[in-house]
Input
Amino acid sequence: MTKAEQLDTIAVLVPADFSGHAAERIDRIFRQVRIERTDPALVTEEMRRTVRGIASFAGIGAAMMDALPNLEIIASFGVGYDSVDVSHAAAKDIMVTNTPDVLTEEVADTAIGLLINTIRDLPRAETWLRDGSWVRKGNYPLSRLTLRGRSVGIFGMGRIGLAIARRLEAFGLPVAYHNRRRVEGLPYQYHPTLKGLAEAVDTLISVAPGSASTQKAVNAEILSALGANGVFVNIGRGSTVDETALAAALAGGTIAAAGLDVFADEPNVPRALLDAPNTSLLPHVGSASEHTRRAMADLCVDNLVSWFSDRRPLTPVPETANVKPRS
Output
């Protein structure tokens, strides 16, 4: 066990664009080592010798891990960790942690807000008021879509998916879901395939994590199954959607509308989605409140503290849950 008073001798690498609150805590507790970005070309010989932890929300690939032979833990800021090569980390006995739970309710709130904005066209209605159109042109046109009478499918019934489902229940809407496997004890209808779920509902909310198995999972076939009255909302990862197929589905009337908080190549959003009149787009703000980001920062740092003081992580990702501390 590493004694608390020795933590300030442990070198933790922190990129320049990292959370200010987390960086301040790390600087008080550990020996913070700053780096412009998580690029192995920037790793110095001293970093190679001394760095034992990384705190970052940027991608950590195999080359970065190999550049730091004494690395024990990567404390990833965020619930998604698809930008970390966890297979390589597990092979090298490097612990990877993330920050689940503390952002669940915030992201679920955003998902519901994005859904309502998409269906009722509220952002454009506000613009109508602000730009004087209400005075010049009269009432804003009636929204073509409504939440009333809809059925909702959730792709990815994890913590966030469940929080979204509970909110939808309060709206009086039926909920179904698709996961790799059924979640025991849930009252919602389970569909073993994503296509089956899309065929059964008219509103699809994706909360799926980014991975090889979910890459472009929401494609032309799924959107066609959702139908002309269909609404698609993505609060998970942009990589799970074929954005070219989505833009075509919106333009051609295959589905009615889409609300997106995440994109495949952030911050670059395809022009076809930006120009589509039937989209509501957000700049990846699902968990972006000061309250929630501070809680995420604290959990990120708490994982480092727990690992180096008690020799255990608080929230390990499944792929590295069996990694043991080095003696």
